Amino acid sequence: MSSLPMTLPVSGLSCGSCAARLQRHLEQVSGITQAQVNLATAQATVHSSLPLDAIITAVEKAGFRVPEQKATLTIRGLSCASCVRRAETALAQLTGIRQVEINLANSSVTMSYVAEQVDFQQMNQAVQAIGFELLPSSEATTPEDRAEEERQKEYRELRQRLTISGVLLAVLLLLDHGAMMGMQHWLDHRLNHLLQALVTTPLQWWVGWYFHRSTLTLLRHGAVNMHTLVSIGTFSAYGYSLLVLLFPEWFYSSGMQAEVYFETAGSIIVLILLGRFLEARARGRTSQAIRQLVGQVPKQARVMRGNEEIEIPLAHVLPGDRVVIRPGERVPVDGTVLEGESTIDESMITGESIPVLRRPGDPLIGGTVNGRGALLCTATRVGQSTLLAQIVALVRQAQQAKPPIAHLADRIAAIFVPVVLLIASLTFLAWWYWGAEPSLTHALLSAVAVLIIACPCALGLATPTSILVGTGRGAELGILIRGNAALETAHRLSCVVFDKTGTLTTGKPTVTDWSGSPEDLAFVATAERSSEHPIAAAIVAYAKQEKLALHKCETFAALPGQGVQASIAGREVLVGTQRLLHSRQIVLNAAEEALLQRLEQEGKTALLAAIDGKVAGVLAVADVLRPSSQAAVATLHSAGIKVALLTGDNRRTAQAIAAQLAIKEVLAEVLPGDKANEIARLQQAGEVVAMVGDGINDAPALARADVGIAMATGTDVAMEAADITLMHSDPQGVALAIQLSRATMNNIRQNLFWAFAYNLLLIPLAAGAWYPLFGWQLSPVIAAAAMGLSSVTVVSNALRLRHFHHG
Fold first, then answer.
1. Is the pLDDT of residue 746 over 80?
2. For residues 96-106, average pLDDT
3. What is the pLDDT at residue 376?
4. Phi then psi for 69, rounded to 5 degrees?
């Protein structure tokens, strides 16, 4: 059985060490060849030949859980118990279905399934193949919706616990600091401690259960995480205080101070809970971009059944269905216009703000917004086959990927908690044996401070949150980044190689010059209208652009390699090469000769037109530059990146294009099979190379480059070979993709720096390393506040990428 990738949601991931430990555990399971665990998305991607049940069991053995969705659907076509068995068997065979039960009496099917592995369309196809049909009882949700649901559930639980714990902490602080407020005679010393214990107990056991349950679960599997540190630290302060409360005489007889630290235990729990609350709220915004993308597609679609227009769930639309799109509505599926004319806002796909005109025969993209016209289209791609669904899949793939820089944080997070436990133990022993009196008090407070302040969450979140936000922002800008190293490599690029046709140029011939009169151009265009040559189409399009009325062609003949000949309104028209005119004894004057030569030197295809034996004008056709090509190349040059032009065209044409763009390195007359060799040559010279192309013949070079960048207006083969896909035809997107990569990598480095610096600076402070020199000792309460702040800081820094823009 082959090793296939499988992405599963995971519950119970609370910090970087959890993610690293689960990843390490999965990689040790026989049958799993590769595993990646992403803390920010709470997902595990596993390459395995094992069945889904075995992988879920492996996750559960590590102390985590794969959430399952439950759904009750209606099934049509059941008539007997045999039907039930057949339908249950068909559904149970789908990867992702954990349990299925069908009730013949009410024609319902109840399923438990892993939604990331199976969707309604697959379920429906499975039962349709044996003669039944499923009807959804509720709208299907996306992985982002489910992740947001889980986050909201956690958020509500945290908010409830935080509200109650805030009241309890206020009472606790009042009791602990009553003496400072002139209330020293209000309560007996022993009674005060007893009341503190009563208030702290629900804080420790009910509010703190959020941390303790995770600790217990992991301890059963011989593992630890950040919650373990919180549990040990708070129970140390709480347990010590209970002993003082219950056995004060023993402490006095031993010469130790009988102080209680209920306030410390309670404050730590509340402050860390506050940090988790703020982090959960901030993390909800990291996947906002992809949720917005998914939300662009309507849940319902209007289709024609015969002559009747009906509204059905989007999941029921099939390829070939005729779909009605009213003015102002979103396009529900990818399709082709059958009737109507309207402008379509495609900015959410391409990033281009100007709406495009769509007429019969033109393509439509699901999720885009229809303008003022009504359209009837035929559905060509539905469900997971649509362009938007593929974009979302690419973004999810990128968000699961780990660039090489992330592995350092993973390795550290994997050993972080055991190392912190060791440091806390050594801190306790050192203070107890050699510390200033009261040594036990100092030992306890310092050890608890070390446990509390050492937060591996910041390390675990540093990379995935930046990737989550960066790739989401890229999708909003029409830049799709995939591959586990593309994001990191793109920021190191030193050379960008552009294929000429279709990237820097429009990829289709356009009339650039005409020296004759509009009347004569109408005759030329009429002659060319009967030709199938691309240049002929360009001439006809130019005449229409000039709003010229064409004539009726009486006779027409194509002259291979020379041009065309036609009779129009009693006049003889020739359009073609100079050789064609010479063969008909038509001579050019000096000015026409000079114009012809100049146009050819500019790399244009020059044609001559003659009417009734006389030269009517010189016409030039060229593959013209895109409007933004010069700005794109200038932006790359200003960023210190070398730009090269790669083309199979002749050197004269290539040099003419390069001169307009100020490109010095020109690789012309390169055969399709040699393009990859040219990329390799640049790499051997020490360049980190990006290849930008859009054609089938660019695919080998795109794959060979350090980063392949494809235009989505090109071929599917080119996009499949590329690491980055631009969802528009603007070459400025190349510079924008590189800038986004640089911004994301800088953001990751900032996060890693602060995560490492935080621990390197504050753990020694918490352990009391500075006490002998400066008398500094960190309170566990302050340590708890600092720990919560570290994770919130990392997530908040990553969220700055949401505002990334060109420049």
1. yes
2. 76
3. 93
4. -95, 145
- Domains of the chain plus CATH, in order, are 4-61 (3.30.70.100), 69-140 (3.30.70.100), 322-383 (2.70.150.10), 483-506+625-727 (3.40.50.1000), 510-622 (3.40.1110.10)
Using CA atoms in the order 245, 251, 253, 257, what is the torsion angle rounded to 10 degrees? -110
What is the signed CA dihedral for 510, 512, 515, 520, rounded to 10 degrees?
20
Q: What is the 3-state secondary structure (H, E, C) of 220-248?
A: HCCCCCHHHHHHHHHHHHHHHHHHHHHCH
pTM of the model: 0.66
E strands present in 526-597? 553-559, 563-568, 571-576
Cis before 438 (ω within 30)? yes
Q: Report yes or no: 376 and 707 within 8 Å, Cβ to Cβ.
A: no
Please, what is the end-to-end C-alpha distance for the chain in angstroms? 49
Q: How far apart are CA 330 and CA 311, in angstroms?
A: 14
Segment 526-550, tens digit of pLDDT: 998 888 777 888 899 899 888 888 8
161 neighbors 207 (Cβ within 8 angstroms): yes
499 assigned to active site: yes
Digit-coded pLDDT (tens) for 358-379: 889 988 988 888 988 899 999 9
Query: Rounded distance, CA 698 to CA 717, Å?
Result: 9
pLDDT value at position 488?
77
Cα Rg, the chain, nearest whole Å: 35
* DSSP per position, 440-468: HHHHHHHHHHHHHH--THHHHHHHHHHHH
Active-site pick, 499, 623, 694, 706: 499
Residue 179 in this model has a pLDDT that exceeds 60: no
User: ∠641-642-648 over CA atoms, to 5°?
Assistant: 135
For the stretch 258-310, pLDDT in tens is: 677 788 778 878 877 877 777 677 666 666 656 666 667 788 889 988 888 88
CA distances from 82 to 40, 77, 130 (A): 46, 12, 12
Q: What is the Cα 723 distance to its own chain's centre?
A: 13
Token match 């933004």: residue?
Answer: 628
CA 402/CA 380 separation, integer angstroms = 34
Contact 95, 118 (CB under 8 A): yes
Report how far Cα 81 is from the mean position of its chain's Cα atoms.
Answer: 46
Q: At what angle do helices 16-27 and 405-434 cross, to 10 degrees?
A: 120
Contact 647, 554 (CB under 8 A): no
Q: Kindly tell me if the per-residue pLDDT of 406 is higher than 80.
A: no
**780-799 and 732-767 helices, crossing angle to 10°:** 180
